[in-house]
Amino acid sequence: MEIKRDILWRVYLSFLGVVLLSFMVLGRAFYIQNFEGDHWRGMSDSMHQRFVELDAERGTIYSEDGQMLSTSIPYFDLYMDFGADGLREKNGKRFKENRDSFAIALSKFFNDKSVAQYKKELQRGFNEKNRYHLIRKGLSFEQYKAFRTFPLVRLGRNRSGVIAEVKSKRLNPFGQLAKRTIGLSRVNAQNVGLERTFDTLLKGSSGSRLVRFIAGGAAVPVEGYEIDPENGRDIITTINVQMQDIVHSALMKMMVQSESAYGTCIVMETKTGKIKAIANLGRDQDGNYGELMNYALQTSEPGSTIKLATLLAVLDDGSSKIDDMVEIGTTGTAYVGVRNITDAERAPKSLMSVKECFAHSSNIGMGKLALKAFATQPDKYKNYLQKFHLHQRTGIDLLGEPAPILPKLKRNNEGLHAMVTASFGYAIQVSPLHTLMLYNAIANDGKMMKPYLVSSIRNNGVVVKDIEPVILDESLVKPEVIAAARKCMEAVVTEGTAKNVFKDTPFSIAGKTGTAHVAGGSIKYSHGIYQASFVGYFPADKPEYTCIVLIRTKPHAAMHYGGQLAAPVFKEVATKLYAMYVQGKKDSEIPVRPDSSLYRFAGFAQDVKKVFSEVDWKMVDSSIKDNQWSIVYNNNQRPVIRSLPAAKKTIPDVRHMTMKDALYELENLNVKVIVRGRGKVVAQDLYPGTAIVKNQTITLLLN
Does residue 472 have a pLDDT over 60? Predict the structure, then answer.
């Protein structure tokens, strides 16, 4: 009996323990569900849902005349959510009714699978309730517009289950033209040019979207949980595409002909400092030329083009005048102060004026002039170089510009040696842009302008910031010194080192040739590498443009002088620009092509009628009295106003409207708008009359 009692006691105790444990589990479950439920549900959601960043649409870089130099082209990845309520309601009636026609449209459009294969894939996705079925990746904007007209798709996202993810590619529509200066926004690579300098403005502000992760790791957007990104600003440059093409072609021709290592050509608007064109061509390992580096900003010993700075310094100092005579000698070499100097070519006579020394690019002559002026004060010559802004960066709107290097000019023999050497273009390093800026100041009557590439910043076509020309120095030197320097530069072309190149030019040019024997780093003088340059302005009597051409030769090149390599490029550029942009302004009016948009535009009806009334332009009014919107078009040389259909729950026709009117009408219908380009609306990716659904998005193309 005692054994039985002992067994029963153990059974009762175990049963009681199980009951107590059950109550504890139930109690804990009740507590978690009612008091900690929100916390654990949130933890669960966080493992399957999270916010992802949405990139803003990067701004566009435009030329001065509105051409796209760098832009983002949208492309679309298409998916289907077969679990969408609108697709599955009434036992999938909508899907079944449109499946066959949708499959036919897909097969015909993409031409990659048969109709039967598409039907099979669609049915399988529907049966499996696939929430993120891939249809196609990488569709262009035009392809996506066509896709939106397909059966089922045109019913809208909620009813069709179609999901379109928009991405973008960055490209330069004009290829190599100014590519290094414009830059290209690249993933996992260092941006360059304007893309790098204005990256913060161009990229805008990112948005965010809540996504749910499903089987296979695919992320499905959660409707209603999205913060739109703020698109980037647009950059309007000073570059003229036609000028850029002229400069690029002329430089390329000489580069190929001479097989040179690299070259650059810059055109600046004299009065403002605007960079109208900038070409940088380097030779790659395969022998092809492309925009590899921005050689316009690289510093090097300039050679004889720096003689303008020496000329300005000695004339402003008053130690010499352009008619003073200088003893050059007949041997082509002379000992000047503390060093021996050699002329690249023998002087035409042993005794030459200061103007002739400059025109014939005599190293001996310029060295003697510098010695006469600054023999006791070499540092005074450096003060002039600093006055000419050759000691600091130009400040052009491009990151990464290196600083120039000036020699140490102390009041000793070492400083005297460096000063005399610098007077004809060695022992000093400046960029082609520095040299151009100095010569442009002489063309601009002594007013030195800061070079710049960006004229304005815009947001959706509205100017956010206008960038005006900046004057670095109102009067670089005395007016009589400027006049004398201009005479010397004109003599270079009429009687000096560039005489043969420009002898048949039908307009006046002023400038200077330069040839520097290159040494530094791995390059030695024995390699026979030269840097040929020509810098000047035209027309000489009333300058419109200043231009520099610099070409680094191959070793032991037969042609290596500035008058042989750089001056012909300058001549071709100047001749074409003069014919297109200078001569036409003086002799005849430029023909203006009629703007076809004048004959077809849309907008608020009352505003349109008010415009016609104000300008007293008779019109044919065919609009309905109470209609808000109208379109104007040309009919037998008379404008006709016609009403646009009123849109209530359907997408309106906003083509030919300004962006302001289009946004007003669409946003009043609770339609989200994506805008690409600028100007008037030329296309919309949702056809007028399409039913508006919740969170509808439309893309407008402006031009």
Answer: yes
pLDDT at 188 over 50: no
Distance between CA atoms of residues 526 and 509, nearest Å: 35
What digits encode the pLDDT tens for the residues 611-666? Answer: 777 777 776 666 666 567 777 766 666 676 677 766 667 788 888 877 878 888 88
Answer yes or no: are the C-beta atoms of 530 and 516 closer than 8 Å.
yes
Cα–Cα distances in angstroms (integers) from residue 623 to residues 233, 286, 627, 631, in the given order: 38, 65, 7, 9
- Judged against a pLDDT cut of 50, whether residue 586 lies above it is answered with no
Indicate if 384 and 505 belong to the same structural domain.
yes
Q: What is the DSSP letter of 261?
A: S
d(CA 663, CA 641): 21
23-76 pLDDT tens trace: 788 877 777 777 676 666 555 554 566 666 666 778 889 999 888 888 887 888
Burial letters 572-602, b for 16+ CB under 10 A, else e:
bbbbbbbeebbeeeeeeeeeeeeeeeeeebb
Are 12 and 90 found together in one domain?
Answer: no
Report residue 254 as tokens: 């000489």
Which H helix or E strand runs over 530? strand 530-538
Q: Does residue 275 share a domain with residue 220?
A: no
Q: Flag whether 357 is in a domain.
A: yes
DSSP symbol at 305: G
- Closest residue by Cα to residue 238 from 468, 60, 547: 468
Half-sphere exposure of 514 (CA within 13 A, CB side): 32
Determine the structural domain holding residue 130 and report its residue range: 51-237
